[in-house]
């Protein structure tokens, strides 16, 4: 009762002090009937059919709790509007590097993944605006840099921080390709590093073991296997760990927008978001997302899954803007998305303090590591055209 009263008084005070001017009301849009005491108004999109609309932080939190996916397009209005679309390039139709991939697969270790995920989930939260989210990004950056420094292979590998207007940076690690003329046409393997507790986003405990510690560690292990075995592709292969996926795909939109502006001709991107939970409704499988993705690339991902994995493929849908592949699709590039199983059978613990390592199956994660390895090696070696 006390709480409610003081909340009401605060709201009233805020209304009186910060009554929006006519143009603020206009720009907020007619549909917003909440008190405009939220400074952090953002323009979001929840579907291709529906016009973007302005939201308060409280409204976005409601969307998170109700599993309404959105893209926060406030700062990325021109994503996908480049005047000279690069067009999509032909892809291979089959897997041809079984011998090479087998060598890298031998390097994959579930024990490594368990150690990394246990550490990664020990940060209180990896919320993109939090201090611990910044600390977790620095920890991840160090793991990747150490792998690069320790190798004596002759591969040309680099790492960089992609800074954002919030604390947690995104990370990009890159293997250069042998063929210089393909240097502007990378292959991208992605995951997101941030986590969120939907009840208390700023401070709430959010181990984010499955979402998306699992994808982060899956591709970290793939990266490790490639570094240790002297991977030298034809074209660049990049590993991306995005910040702020949970806040409307902010990190991946920023990265995709910068690539689009520079005219980078990305061949293909695959997202790994939730690779560690085996559901109870269906047999263990790869969930291959078939909505809001590139059909041809998705068909190829199915081929790679059949070639390099040991579990069946299940087609599934996850709706508009459900992960970072959507940012690449919007920018006009080919992207695909592999998830732990049927979307309806995915982890019930995500966005809560219960999304911890105890619900993770590391053998399942290894299946996704094999798929990501197949993707990186097959497409990295693909000669293709410029
Ligand atoms: C490099 O790639 C281009 C474009 O696909 C191709 O024409 C050229 O033959 C390649 N060079 C080598 C050395 O493979």
TrEMBL record:
One of its GO terms (biological process) is proteolysis. Its EC number is 3.4.-.-. Residues 171-375 form the Peptidase M28 domain. One of its GO terms (molecular function) is aminopeptidase activity. Pfam families: Peptidase_M28. Keywords: Aminopeptidase, Hydrolase, Metal-binding, Protease, Signal, Zinc. It comes from the Eukaryota. Transmembrane segments: none annotated. SUPFAM superfamilies: Zn-dependent exopeptidases (SSF53187). It is an enzyme of class 3 (hydrolase). Residues 1-18 form the signal peptide. Its cofactor is Zn(2+). Belongs to the peptidase M28 family. M28E subfamily. This is Peptide hydrolase. It comes from Podila minutissima. The gene is LAP1.
